[in-house]
Amino acid sequence: MIRYLIQRPIAILLIFTVLCVAGLAVIKKIPVSLLPDADVPEIVVRVNRPNAPAQVIEESILRTLRENLGNLDNLANMESTAADHYGIIHLSFEHGTRMDLTYITVNEKLDRLTNELPPDMPRPQVVRINTSDIPVIRIQVIPKDSSYCLDISALAENVLKRRLEQLKSVSLVDINGKRHGIITVEPDHAKLSVLGLNEHAISRAIAEASQELETLNIRDGQYRYFIKFRNALENGMPIGKIPIRLENGTVIPLERVARVQLETEEETGYHLYNGKEGLVITVQKQASGRMNELIQEVRKAVESFRQEYPQAEFRLTQDQTYLLDAGISNLRQDLLYGGALTILLLFAFLGNWASPFLMGISIPLSLIITFLLFYLLGISFNIISLSGLALGIGMLIDNSIVVLDSIARKRKSGMHMLDSCIAGTNDVVVPVISQVLTTVAVYAPLMLLGGMAGTLISDQAIGLTASLGTSLLVAFLLTPLLYKLLHKKAPATLKEDTVLYKWVSKGYHRMIDHILRHRRPYFAVTLLLMPIGFWIGLNIPATPLPDIEKRESLVFIDWNSPVDITENLRRSIALQKAIAPRCIETEAEVGVREFLLQQDAGTIRQTEVYFSCKDESGKLETDQQIRQWLAERYPKAVVRITDAPNAFTQLFSTSAPYIEARFRPSKGPNPPGTRPMAEVLNTFRHTDHSPGDGLLSESNITVSLDYLKMAIYGVQKPAIEDELHQLFGARPIASVRQAQSTQMVLLGTSLHTLEEKLTRSVPGADGNRYPIKSFITLNSGSQPKFITADKGGAYQSLLFGQKTKDLPALQRQLDELAAENRLSVDYHGQYFENGRRLRQLWIVFLLVLLLLYCILALQYESIVQPIVVMATIPLGITGGMLLLWLTSGTINTMSAIGFIVVLGLIVDDPILKVEVLNRLEKKYLAQGLAPDEELLKKMIHEAGDLCLKPLLMVSLTTSIALVPVLLTGGIGNDLQKPLAMVIIGGLTIGTFFTTWFTPLAYYYLVKWRMHKKANQTNERS
């Protein structure tokens, strides 16, 4: 096959030319995204129920939803939280679930539940989580004058949003902070009393004027028409001109007895930017779109907005493309600096210009053809796939190194050029393919991991596999052909080794001689080094992600008191102004958020503040300032400050507590005198615990009606209810349609305080009116702030942090507490989830070892020799762990990927060396020479001489390609540094030990085999 291809150079060159042209042509067509387009196996169901307390939402809505959604296929977990005004249900599914079908099923179930839910409740929202749902950029729209607030909100909803949605690659445009206009009708009670009218007359007149009339279908000859009757308000009649008929038949306009005005509705949530009220528009990208092009289009659109709408200020914030730019920058940097260092290294070991040139061109050729595979496989350029390419750059040259070295040795031995290319390539086909397969085999089981780790690792694995596959194609087809075309010198004059390499080679052989003379100590020491890496790993802290420079924070504040949204807004503005001197920009979501994809809408008494600073020290100082500011002014407030998540980090973050103990009443009646569960749990004492959301409470006011007094004075309950609804603005009269919006009409009042409003009167049976406060009693009390539940129903919990030491003792203490008070308890949290993942990782690790063993067993046709090769894996882990520990690194997602790469690469030299030793042994056996002591030493030296140059160049080029990551800054390199440390440590320190461990292990293996054969011969004789 190799001979056939090498003899047709024009065909080979044309094939690679076409592949390169096609690869360059499709680069612009490959999607560019922050992350791979992956379904997160979660669905969120959100219920909006304004003016309803948490208890009502739990009992009348969420409980019904849980009972009907609990039998969904592949449902792993279900959590719900009821709060005032809204409720949330999180549905988590098993990894691999078809989320598109599940999304449809959830919606169908909700549609069937319509009759079981309150009739006036909006349909629950179903949000499907996807990595492409993360906003790529936010647009701040700030009115220059407060009088423009309503106009700007209408502009954003009806114009800006639609123009942004028309941009190519935009999937969703979301808005928060819109202001809504309402029409208030404030009756003049003195005039109403004189004219013998009441508020109901006003309400009835407005409702009749806005009432929709039925549409008629009439026939006129051979034609048929639909006739729509327009109500008075649609015909343009102002509300103030609506006629009201008095008892004496006189008709007067509404404006004679009431004041009508357009006002801004008191919202349940606001958006702030740098302390100013405004709104924010977030832009989501389509999975198939190119992110870099989309951002440019958004910038152009915003620039046109500035020109066309001068009444507002526009700012772009939280642009997530810096993550993608970091990935592209890493790839470009590795290509330029890493490639340059690699070529210099090749010149340091190779004595001619042609071989480094041939090896060097394999990098860009392999990458360009890899782009074609990306396009055909539907993979996007994202920070995960780009990291796979960046990892592969140092490995792209490895296959060509081995092939060229083998051809050069055949040529130097005097073989004809064509025969050298053929024989040299054929000699290394099996070990080179085996090396690639071992690297790929490491990734294959990792794709079985659950959660986002398995989803994301697949894109990196495909990117790395595609690049290695193309480099294999280049090494076997193009490299021998170009060697034949470029090397014209006679074998005697062929210079392959430099002075540096000859010096290294002599030192290597001296080292091997010394080690072979002291075999047992070196072999024993190497065996003792193997478990050290695992011991070091136990002493290295574990974190989700590497420590990168953080200049942004996210502050979550719960004022922990029944503050109104206006007071929450005032406090949030004051906080932003206090930290403004230290910050570049600040944002705040005050109260309830309106984002369509918002999982947790928040409550009126909560605020979420984002800020960014010039450097990390400024961020830390601002964090401390916020804590101090809140402690001095609002000591009851609950504050949580975290590093602001970006599109990458928030996929690995979790809000789950470290350990959570959930308590429920045991089934069956409780004996008299049993304490409430909340009282029992609140008395529990532990050094590192806090109450769960279900134990939190808030102040409320309960209203009791005096039915006896109501009966005496003939006051009806509906009259009190109607008056209270009117006073507190909870019941609209009508809605008025205008252009592209609908405005609600409410009865207003000039009364402001609770005391003033309760002086309003209601009619009695004798025709007189009596104050409302005469028939009601107000009592202060408390109610649950949140009601938490899961598949098992409602629960209340205690949370424990990572400082918890003796977990079994804590569990026994909690079990006893539950048993004494007739409660049941079960345990959840990150601790148990981490244990499950660790068990899963061990299974995956064993699968990796099994795959590696099978590949090597097929190559060597031996069940023992694969163990010799795989015994070098602990040495690579030790090298990586040692360098990670010396540089004060952590075990995190990126360093774990580095160990994955080391697992596949550390066995490359042993694979080639054992293959060469087997070949030498067969050669000497064919000559009638048994592998005695001296012959074994000679074989080890010969194999070392044949494998040393590929070993040095492969390990050093892979490591040196990552050196630029260590020497330059930026978030991209900060993320890659732990990975680079592990690979460099594993391939330098680990490879150093494998240079003598593999020959020694092979030596003892042959000696054991000879001893076994001798024993069998003696037994037969």
UniProtKB/TrEMBL annotation:
Pfam families: ACR_tran. The keyword Ribosomal protein does not apply. The chain crosses the membrane at residues 335-350, 357-377, 383-407, 428-449, 461-483, 521-538, 841-860, 867-887, 946-967, 979-1005. Gene3D superfamilies: Multidrug efflux transporter AcrB pore domain (3.30.70.1440), Multidrug efflux transporter AcrB pore domain like (3.30.70.1320), Multidrug efflux transporter AcrB TolC docking domain, DN and DC subdomains (3.30.2090.10), Multidrug efflux transporter AcrB transmembrane domain (1.20.1640.10). GO terms for molecular function: xenobiotic transmembrane transporter activity. GO terms for cellular component: plasma membrane. Keywords: Membrane, Transmembrane, Transmembrane helix. This is Cation transporter. The lineage of its organism: Bacteria, Pseudomonadati, Bacteroidota, Chitinophagia, Chitinophagales.
